[in-house]
Amino acid sequence: MSKVERKVRLIQGNEAIAAGAVYAGAGFYAGYPITPSSEIMNDAARLMPRVGGIFVQMEDEIGSIAAVVGASLGGAKAFTATSGPGFSLMQENLGVAVMGEVPCVLINVQRSGPSTGLATKPGQADIMQVRWGRHGDQTIIALCPGSVPECFLLTVKAFNLSEKFRVPVVLVTDEVIAHARQNFAIPEPGEIPLVERKSPAGPPEKYRPFDAEEDGVAPLAAYGGEYVFHISSSMHGPDGYSNNNPDNAIWRIKQLHEKIEMHRDEIVMTNTYDTDDMDVLLVACGATTGASRAAALEARRNGIRAGVLHLVTIWPFPDREVKELAGRVKKVVVPEMNYAGQVAGEVQKVIGPDTELTRVNKYNGQIITPRDILEVL
Amino acid sequence: MLQKTGEKYLKEGVLPHMWCSGCGIGVMLGALLRSFEELGYAKNEVVVVTGIGCTGKADDYLVTNALHTTHGRALAFATGIKAVRPELKIVALMGDGDSVTIGGNHFIHAARRNIDVTAIVNNNFNYGMTGGQASGTTPGGKLSSTTLYGNPEDDFDISALACTAGANYVARTTIAHGWEMQQLIKEALTKKGFSLVEVLSPCPTNYGKRNKMGEPLDMLRWLRKNCVPSDAYAKLGEAEKEGSFIIGKLCERDKPDFNTRYAEIQEKAMSV
To answer: Which domains does chain A have, with CATH numbers?
Structure first.
């Protein structure tokens, strides 16, 4: 990449996400205010009309994600942001985006729960809700930034993946990352390639909105063009009309899963730090990434060779990457801001029940510190 | 003059439809499709958005654009489409359970927002699809599968609700008033801003059967007898007003719709 002079400035995680969405070409935001995601909404309200886009403050989160899906089918890149209770409310219509194969981006800034919980404090207890929050057989792509620059970069990536694979993508952050400020230079237009959904090319009368091509993805038209089409939350055939045939249901459910499975290696992203010679592996995502890196550096000063695996993609879970690195060390540690060890459970599944796993769980609404992690190293 | 049939918007080979004998939804859908044809709408400039329930099945009969969504949320999906595609005609087809019971919040806010969407509500006073449970429009005292001893709650006046919330156009009609229904639907479709046509409709299978109107024609006769234009309604005594419905155009305004006002917002934002 050629060197470009860019202006570095101090930017907040939520602000970086809104800027990333605009960079990615977002033309529609619908949302409902909720802490700690509100700055994304405020920025969207300011920025969308400036770039010719639309911002709608909806009556609730159910309507917000519904409007996002509608706008996307109208041809716009559309997004929303929420947190905790709002994310719960969005699940049903996020399922419509899965079933109808509608590209969109949903940002969930995790906060402490359950229920209203510690409303302004961080948590990482939505990892499983991101994956399994909707009823029925379905799958999802979820990305988990570990820094403010990654908030920007992964927002752009989330739009790109959602457009490419015709899926909703969840960007999972937490209150710590959302409100952290770091130096960042917003890339110039064109520096990061942008992906647009595949449009149909054949004769309009032959267009079927769920006829997947070889890459597992069907082209998607926009309402109002020459292609007339049906999108449905009900089980449907390739033409989008209701279809209750059992064989059709098998085809449909498989297709929804397979289009993600067949591109697994392109979707799953991880970062590694000091893993070449490590004896101890720290597996981190979101706010625990920075704390783990600081803990690993400090441990090395004390003669413990620690390394960090940052799960940039949290779903599909980076199982092969975890397995490969965990196989090289004497000890695996998973720090996370929840009681049950939602990430640790997945790691355990990968490394097997007989390999010991050290968990660091904090669920008092406070961030996991490097000291919390050092205590178990 | 050759009558418009609306057939060109109907999917081939799907008739007879799935609705019960005496149900009003097919009649309402027919009026909508004839309206499309009379107004000269192309299939690709219309998006019909549906929710869940008997009325929510309507999209499967159509060859216009369609989005079949979740229970109660059709108007919220429709809002997103309209916001980015102001040139399209967006119709949300819903029942009474869909529009003002589970979806009541979206209903009042779509009217308040004055989004240029036409809501057509088939009000048959109960949840037909799930077996005749009471909805937000089941009148007080009436019987349903969940109000076996009479409904302890009163019903919403859907039209009054939309009018109060800020809709630009509100009309009530019935399945027993076919020609009028079509004229009102056409007027609603051409009106900019949020418009509602509430269509009172028979459900002999569930609501009628439990309320002494079990034959397919009984509810139609009941609608004919109890629905009156506003001038005739004004002449009724207090006792007669109870249980009667005013039909016709109930409310009309010309406030700028959401998209018009948002275009001004864009202009302001770009000049800052």
So the answer is: 8-185 (3.40.50.970), 271-374 (3.40.50.920)
